[in-house]
Amino acid sequence: MTEIHIRPARTSDVHGIKELVAPMAAERILITKDTVTYYENIQEFVVAQDAEGTLVGCGALHVMWEDLAEVRTLATSPAARGHGVGGRMLEELLARASRLGVSRVFCLTFEVPFFAAHGFEVMANQETIPPEVFTELLRSHDEGVAEYLDLARVKPNTLGNTRMIRSVTPEG
Ligand SMILES: CC(=O)SCCNC(=O)CCNC(=O)[C@H](O)C(C)(C)COP(=O)(O)OP(=O)(O)OC[C@H]1O[C@@H](n2cnc3c(N)ncnc32)[C@H](O)[C@@H]1OP(=O)(O)O
């Protein structure tokens, strides 16, 4: 495998991210988004690029609340898996979380051993959210927030997935 470079995503990566995600979305492992949503959220993404400039991985960190963010759309192309690319992208997203001042990072995944190897633990189902924060989060139109809150309307997205969380030390 050629050397892989992990870097913040640019607008020109949207096409590659969509191509990478499409087969996994078809398998219902990941959720695809409208192109406009990828552009709007491009600053949340990191990508992994090989020496030829081909995009072989992507991942995003979405801030939900003062102390809480979610890892989303973490994917390595099938040919590049098992070489540490996913792990490096995840560690970069966790470093971002720390720099942003977040102290907990959530994910919803089928890849439980992978996330566990990076410090995530399976969430107790009724992890306490202060009622005032719960009420504020309910105002969000974001599907991921609804998934975090375990709302009935997103159950089809979350079926079979495991809710996991880990602490990070906020910078500063
Ligand atoms: C919150 C969300 O985004 S959930 C969605 C998660 N993504 C998906 O389900 C999409 C489909 N899956 C994937 O794209 C990938 O399998 C990912 C993103 C989960 C992992 O990506 P990879 O690039 O394969 O990760 P990485 O190589 O760091 O680790 C995979 C395994 O290879 C092992 N590994 C890491 N480096 C090496 C290496 N140099 N040599 C051999 N094995 C290695 C790791 O120990 C790891 O094992 P584990 O899963 O038992 O912990």
From TrEMBL:
Domain (N-acetyltransferase) ranges: 4-142
Keyword Transferase attached: yes
Membrane-spanning intervals of the chain: none
Matching InterPro entries: Acyl_CoA_acyltransferase, GNAT_dom, NH2A_AcTrfase
Pfam families hit by this protein: Acetyltransf_1
CC terms in the record's Gene Ontology section: cytoplasm
NCBIfam families xrefs: PRK07922.1
Protein name per Swiss-Prot or TrEMBL: N-acetylglutamate synthase
Organism for this UniProt entry: Kocuria varians (Micrococcus varians)
Lineage, broadest ranks: Bacteria, Bacillati, Actinomycetota, Actinomycetes, Micrococcales
